[in-house]
Task: inverse folding
């Protein structure tokens, strides 16, 4: 009986056994008291009969002989019937007191033993069932500790044990969610480190080659100046790459809290394109802005300008001289849309569903600058503020990115 190893189960089982012993002792006492009770009843009846017979003048010897008689005759039965003493009201118990007492005692003891056995069997079955449930619960908790959350604790109703199992299940669910979150975080960190390593490999190799060339021709100022400039370009590219990766990592980790405030959309567009206007002029591209001058947007100005700037830079990367990049904002009930469109090369339909993936570059991009992080970063910023970023494109006819924001009432 393994369930007796638990203190509470031992107390319960011992108490049940004690109750059964009390039942048995009560039955024994009851059976033992029967001879005295019957003897008192019979003696009182004998005294009444002897008194009546003596008053009728019957000889004492005759009365003594009658008291020793244990036989029953037909005339005696007829006489009792005439006297009004039928079978329902006997005046004499001919059976020996000892025999009757033994029968009563055996009957009482048998009943108590049967009831006690039933009670002990029921108690044992109950405790064994509970012991099996606790064993199952212990095995499930052990699996939880090992990271296996496939099985749950047995359902045992609304009692204290059921509430305990439900609480453990809730704890296991929380542990599972935390484990999955940690696993995703580790996978993300592993992927991020891999991406950084892969993307830094090219500029680092180029930088190493430039330094070797400079070291080989230190007396040649022209070579030194040329490859120093290239080295600075590689360093700037590396700095920009690491900066974008860190921003994406912070957005994915949820460590960035967007500070919302009312911002003028024309000022937001100007801030986003401030460093890109010179490039557009240098490359012979037209960068224009249009929309209501009084339009405002509730957003984080720094991060939103970052997203808008990435969209404009992407348009500059995929257009040629004399192409136009247009920044248009328009308002509608409950929404403000900022669209960055261009008349460039467009995006092939096969690439359209992949452009927001990190480090994705369409095969048609060729030598176009970029590492494939600007669009994912822009989308993360827009969606992080409750907006949505969509794209429409037609090969050879240009591309339009639209950032839609819900307007704050």
Result:
């Amino acid at each position: 009986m393994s369930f007796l190893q638990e203190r509470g189960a031992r107390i319960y089982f011992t108490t049940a056994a004690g109750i059964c012993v009390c039942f048995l002792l009560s039955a024994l006492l009851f059976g033992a008291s029967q001879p005295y009770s019957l003897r008192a009843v019979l003696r009182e009846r004998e005294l009444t009969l002897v008194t009546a017979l003596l008053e009728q003048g019957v000889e004492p010897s005759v009365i003594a002989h009658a008291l020793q008689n244990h036989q029953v005759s037909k005339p005696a039965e007829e006489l009792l019937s005439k006297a009004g003493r039928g079978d329902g009201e006997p005046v004499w118990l001919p059976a020996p007191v000892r025999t009757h007492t033994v029968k009563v005692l055996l009957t009482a003891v048998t009943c108590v033993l049967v009831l006690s056995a039933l009670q002990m069997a029921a108690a044992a079955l109950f405790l064994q069932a509970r012991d099996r449930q606790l064993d199952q619960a212990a095995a499930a908790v052990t699996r939880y500790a090992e990271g296996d959350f496939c099985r749950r604790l047995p359902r045992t109703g609304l009692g204290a044990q059921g509430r305990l199992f439900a609480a453990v299940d809730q704890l296991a669910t929380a542990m599972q969610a935390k484990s999955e979150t940690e696993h995703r975080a580790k996978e993300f960190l592993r992927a991020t480190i891999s991406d950084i390593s892969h993307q830094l490999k090219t500029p680092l190799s180029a930088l190493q080659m430039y330094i070797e060339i400079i070291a080989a021709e230190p007396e040649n100022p022209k070579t030194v100046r040329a490859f120093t400039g290239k080295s600075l370009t590689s360093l700037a590219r590396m700095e920009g790459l690491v900066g974008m990766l860190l921003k994406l990592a912070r957005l994915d980790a949820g460590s960035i809290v967007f500070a919302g405030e009312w911002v003028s959309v024309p000022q937001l567009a100007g801030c986003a394109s401030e460093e890109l206007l010179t490039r557009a002029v240098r490359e012979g591209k037209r960068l224009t802005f249009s929309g209501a001058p009084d339009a405002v947007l509730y957003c984080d100005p720094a991060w939103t300008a970052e997203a808008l700037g990435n969209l404009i830079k992407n348009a500059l990367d995929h257009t040629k001289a004399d192409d136009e990049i247009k920044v248009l904002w328009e308002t509608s009930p409950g929404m403000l849309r900022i669209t960055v469109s261009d008349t460039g090369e467009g995006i092939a339909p096969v690439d359209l569903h992949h452009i927001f993936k990190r480090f994705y570059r369409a095969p048609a991009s060729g030598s176009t600058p970029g590492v494939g992080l600007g669009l994912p970063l822009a989308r993360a910023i827009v969606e992080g503020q409750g907006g949505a970023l969509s794209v429409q494109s037609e090969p050879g006819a240009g591309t339009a990115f639209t950032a839609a924001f819900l307007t704050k009432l």
